[in-house]
Structure prediction request, 176 residues.
Amino acid sequence: MKYDVDNIKLIISDVDGVWTDGCIYLGNNKIEIKKFSVLDGVGVAMAKAANINIALISGRYSKATELRAKELNIKNVFNGALNKLPIYNDLKRKYGLKDNQIVYLGDDLIDIQVMKKVGIPIAVANATLKVKEIALYITETAGGQGAFREAIEWLLIKQGRLDEIITIMDKNVQKI
Prediction:
């Protein structure tokens, strides 16, 4: 399959099973708890340093997802969207992009519709077989363990920009 990594302007990701291990913990008082990896937070910083926009589209509504996205300053967050295609099309229009300028990172059946449209579909290691069959790249890392960051690193390596982005991030840390 031929693909163009140099033109990527947006990475869209599912949340449950990609940013998390797919488990949801519910307490007696209906408090939901999800575990997120700090590695994915660094992946967000790397994408931002590379001027790649980020969007999260989750099939399930979760306050925890909203809180994590806010903490990472991710503006495009869509919770409770079982049909992800209309949101995908809205994001494409919002940024004036073509399909080949977008990456999608997913793990389950509701991700397939969008994965078939984008330039670079990526599946996490714990994705279902059907999702892996569509993926151009499958992370070695499972969801909830830094798979988003691995996907960003893979993309930056393919673009030949990983060292440049690490240098940019290092300079930003030194300013603090």
Remarks:
- The radius of gyration is 15 Å.
